[in-house]
Design goal:
Helix content: 40-55%
Structural class: alpha/beta
Number of strands: 15
Strand content: 5-15%
Low-confidence stretches: 294-302, 522-564
Radius of gyration: 34 Å
Number of domains: 4
Amino acid sequence: MTVLLRAALYLRVSTGRQADSDLSIPDQRRQALAHCAGRGWEVAAEYVEAGTSATDDRRPEFQRMVEAAAAKPPPFDVIVVHSFSRFFRDQFQLEFHVRRLAKTGVRLVSITQETGDDPMGNMIRQIMALFDEYQSRENAKHTLRAMKENARQGFWNGSLPPIGYRVVAAEQRGQKTKKRLEIEPLGAETVRLIFRLCLEGTGTSGPLGIKSIAKHLNETGIRTRDGGRWGIAAVHKVLTRTTYAGRHRFNTRCLKTGERKPEAEVVEMAVPPLIGEAEFMAVQERLKARSPAFTAPRIVSGPTLLTGICFCARCGGAMTLRTSGKGKQYRYYTCSTTARQGQTGCTGRSVPMDKLDSLVAEHLERRLLDPARLETVLAAVLHRRQDWAERRQTQVTELRRRASEAEAKLKRLYDAIEAGIADLADPLLKDRISELTALRDQARAEADRAEAAADRLSANLITPDTVRRFAAEARRRMRTDDNGYRRDHLRALAQRVEVGDHEVRIIGSKTALLHTLAAASGAESATFGVRSFVPNWRPQGDSNPCYRRERAFFGTPMPFSARG
């Protein structure tokens, strides 16, 4: 008695382009049906995998087929493929699944590569699988090489572009259309805003951290490209992506494992920049300074006045707190290299903590917070602030123009519908109306936000009277009730202190100083920014002799100075 075998057809193509052309799948189906009909097999099921690779088993239809074969009893007896490469292009995985299917009584049959079930047939199948795996890897190698060269020439290789960019056709080479990245104005404005918030804040606050930026974007109604809410990971990805500085990095990670590839295999592709290189590097320095990998949380939030910003001028090592005496009553800032390695590592000194704290704070009070000094220090920054306000006004004008254009196009479409020229039931027309409406609304919202930021900036004008009031208030707030010093107030003015044999250099950021001043002039209390290592509010060569007690403290007759 002849047993009628039930067959399942597995049809697969590797790319979406092959699936869209609809040529390979019908041909595989035609040959598989003919093969089954010639042997009297009944086709019990069909599994079609369009646009997936056979180098792994992460294929929905493949998994559905394997699960069905594991049922008791299985709904089919054989799986028919055009060639073993349609089933798997990995020799180990092919053999693993062949044996797994055999345990349930299901055989794998290839139309074009027929083999027997004896040891010779198994060996031939394994050899064929090895050739398929080799060919697959060679194809992948040559494809990647072509894509890397395409990126070197400045062309986009596909995938979703970063926010702030869109893909446009650049040139035609035979049947292929080469594409490039172009700035997308609305998304670009969001990216620029994120960088400004990181470096400058909202105009009434100091620079914001990643979490605060995400919170600000969500509170002001700015959404991600797909309409979602911003999170820490999304903001961090924007701030660290070199694409926005004009250098898109291609081939950075392995698609299968996600592991980072060596720098030698990474290709940099030139794209239109959204921000300047200096601004991008300033953001990286700020992120690095706040990263737990480089700066411990105790340094950012600890109680000691200069911990985390005090360094040895000789070796660059951190000056850390050391104690001595009964009950640890004596406290010193000591070069960490000297503490670990002794004088052979660094000859840096130990400095009594209260003396150095007072020296730094008093110098800031006496020199930096002098109104005339503040005006001189901030002159160039104030000029850049004015330039920023003018650029922001230009952006507002451009966004208003785009909103007006979208509104005019919508009006023409509505007029065409009323006149009976266009049919509102047309899905393409509905999509176009939705697209224009979203573009108009987003442009208006971005323009309103940019205009509000410009208004806040103009409202907080820095005048000589503002500088005088700020200097007096800052000196008062730096001191505590017990004549100590407030840590956050001091660090808003100075971000690095370097202790040498004969001088102490105090380094600060002009931008951070300006934001502190702007916040103090526009609110009841200044909002102090996060740490920064962007020099300098004290020009090089500007030194001042210290008081006699300061020289005596260092135990040397040579002049001591505070320089930035």
